[in-house]
Specification:
By secondary structure, this protein is α+β, with helices and mostly antiparallel strands. It contains seven helices and six strands; from the N terminus they run ααααββαββββαα. Strands 2-1-6-5-4-3 form a six-stranded mixed β-sheet.
């Protein structure tokens, strides 16, 4: 057999294995359960403060407007409190410096980024921000252009720093669905639901 045919057969086998495991496994819900428990605990730990909401929303809007902004690290540092709860469905952090480093690294990996805020709802110390995000990057040798919708639950301290940030968005559709092989599996799993 020639080398190209062997490579194609090996890739087809791996893909079939991934699809089989994905379709028949129950999935590991422990990670999701853990995220729910941490979020609920954070809502008890970080009650927020209404005095910081206006300044906090302004900082949030400015920091996320363009994640490729050369001033992103400074904006993120001004936005997030030293101690907090952060979960964007991909990563969770409890220190502001870790969020700043993560967001700065994320922004550096993008060639374009645009986050549009469409609605801000307030309920006491809770703020809910409805947004759309569009970005371009390269992953696994491919150009990725992603457009997604989401909502973020925020709470701020009296200084306007974020103490609670919980995103609600479909990261699988926005990110993983664009990757070779993994994207096919994600799209197949979504079509079976």
């Amino acid at each position: 057999m020639n080398k190209a045919l062997v490579t194609k057969l090996a890739l087809a086998f791996c893909l079939a294995l991934l699809l089989t495991v994905g379709c028949f496994s129950r999935g590991d819900t422990r990670s999701m359960d853990r995220d729910i428990v941490l979020y609920e605990q954070a809502m008890r730990d970080f009650s927020g403060h209404s005095d910081g909401i206006d300044v906090g929303i302004q900082r949030f809007s400015e920091a996320f407007a363009d994640l490729t902004d050369p001033n992103l690290e400074r904006k993120m540092s001004a936005l997030y409190a030293e101690r907090l709860f952060f979960n964007d469905t991909l990563h969770s952090f409890d220190k502001g410096e870790d969020v700043v480093e993560y967001m700065t690294r994320t922004g550096a990996g993008l060639s374009e980024s645009d986050v549009q805020i469409h609605q801000v709802l307030r309920d006491g110390n809770d703020v809910f921000v409805r947004w759309t995000m569009e970005f371009r990057t390269r992953a696994a040798g491919r150009d990725i252009h992603s457009h997604s919708i989401g909502m973020t639950h925020l709470r701020f301290n009296a200084s306007g720093e974020v103490v609670l940030h919980q995103d609600f968005w479909d990261s699988g559709h926005a990110l993983y669905a664009h990757l070779p092989f993994v994207g096919f599996a994600v799209r197949q799993a979504r079509s079976r639901m």
